[in-house]
Amino acid sequence: MNTAYLGLGSNLGNRLAFLRGGRNILADSPAIELVQASGVYETEAVGGPPNNPFFLNAVLEIQTSLDPRQLLEVCLAAEDEFGRSRPVRWAPRTFDVDILFYADQILAEEDLIIPHPRLQERAFVLVPLKEIAPDLRHPLLDQTITDLAAVSPGATELVPLRTTW
To answer: Is 142 part of the annotated catalytic residue set?
Structure first.
């Protein structure tokens, strides 16, 4: 089994219901065990069209027997369950899952980059990740999540909207 961290987000419809449903689909997969979930944070959308609705974001720690490619397929299937579409980059979405880390692997393929290439720039990922894995070390930057969050713009202002969900 390998430890992986997944970033979840939603900024359309019943955002909390989509996060819960997505978390449950992932946790119900026979090859995934949910270890812990961060609180839920509400944040402004990064990028995308003007007036992009606010997101709810959370991070999951999982154990999985899937390899990174298989995990990506499960994540994409979970997004599809909630009608995720991709009309343009950073478009509003019902449910989004990103693989943030997978064990200590470094992977750079056209459609799968691990660690996630922009996670160190995003308080909406770093703060919930710090909540559940403060000492996790970024394998390329050789810094802990706590260290990365300390210098991330807006990170100190983020507080969980909900601690349990």
So the answer is: no
Catalytic residue list contains 104: no
Domain assignment present for residue 145? The answer is no
Tell me the mean pLDDT per 10 residues along the chain, length 165: 97 96 97 98 84 93 98 96 69 90 96 96 97 98 97 92 92
Annotated catalytic residue, options 67, 86, 89, 96: 96
Residue 19 lies in a domain: yes
Q: Is 98 a known active-site residue?
A: yes
Q: Please report, for the domain that includes residue 92, its CATH number.
A: 3.30.70.560
84 annotated active-site: yes
Q: Are 38 and 59 a contacting pair, CB within 8 Å?
A: yes
Q: Is 133 a domain residue?
A: no
Q: Tell me the chain's radius of gyration from C-alpha atoms.
A: 15
Cut 0.70: pTM above it:
yes
Phi, psi of 80 (to 5 degrees): -60, -35
The β-bridge partners of 40 are 162
* Active-site option among 23, 93, 122, 147: 93
Give the per-residue pLDDT at 155. 92
The residue from 15, 23, 84, 122 that is catalytic is 84
pLDDT of the residue at 85: 66
* Domain assignment present for 77: yes
Q: How far apart are CA 26 and CA 69, in angstroms?
A: 15
**Parent domain of 56:** 2-115
Q: Which one is catalytic: 98, 111, 122, 147? A: 98
